[in-house]
Amino acid sequence: MIEKVNPSHPDKVADRIAGAIVDLAYKKQENPKIAVEVLIGHGYGHVVIETSALLEKEDVAFIVERMAPGIRVFIQIVPLDVHLANNQSKGMRCGDNGIFKSVPLKEEQKALSKIAREIYTSNPTDGKYILDEARLIICQSNAKTTDLKNTYPNAEINPLGDWTGGTDVDTGATNRKLGSDMADSVTGGGLHGKDLSKADVSVNIYAFLKAQKTGKPVEICCAIGDDTIDGIPYQDIVNIAKDYIDSVGGFEKFAEWGLF
Questions:
Q1: pLDDT tens profile 216-232
Q2: pTM of the full predicted structure?
Q3: Sequence ranges of the domains in the chain
């Protein structure tokens, strides 16, 4: 059983905004340290940024306008805490405590990811989808139920009828759809809005890739300041995560669908 939401779901819009701000930090500074929280909905937005990179509110506001046009956004940018900054002063070390469990994807989960992307190609608006052994449930805004029924005749489509989604009828917050992003994997933190020194990003990616490669569950825990995790230097884990982020096109693109 798995649920996916698409990149126009309000929670994913928040993730994408946070990801785009992290992308901006990487353009401004090599290996920045940054954490971003985003809350949007009903014409308003709040963005809180802790960062080592020098960011301008105007640039952040442009990112929000690009993805959630017309909202009134309040932006708070503060320097990174000095104690956290000192954690990285002598090389790359784990940026937080964390627990991580990743498992190989099931065929059912891969199938729903494919269906969600197919629907989004033709209907790039708010949508969410569930698949288990017995039911395919498609809730797609701004799309005619009859049209979707022609393509997916055995699905339950828009059970309450046609609907309009987005941030005018719902709120969005960063890292609220981790089940959609990670399937059966488990984490103590969130994937989005953070730089690669954060274990929530790098170790989650590393564990997920290892589980898919080995076909076995992966369980890892770490403490802030660790320089070795899972028997390898933390810098190597960060490099693996960076290669993955680069391969999908950056943090904003990563936020669209998560890990699968």
A1: 999 999 999 999 999 99
A2: 0.96
A3: 107-170
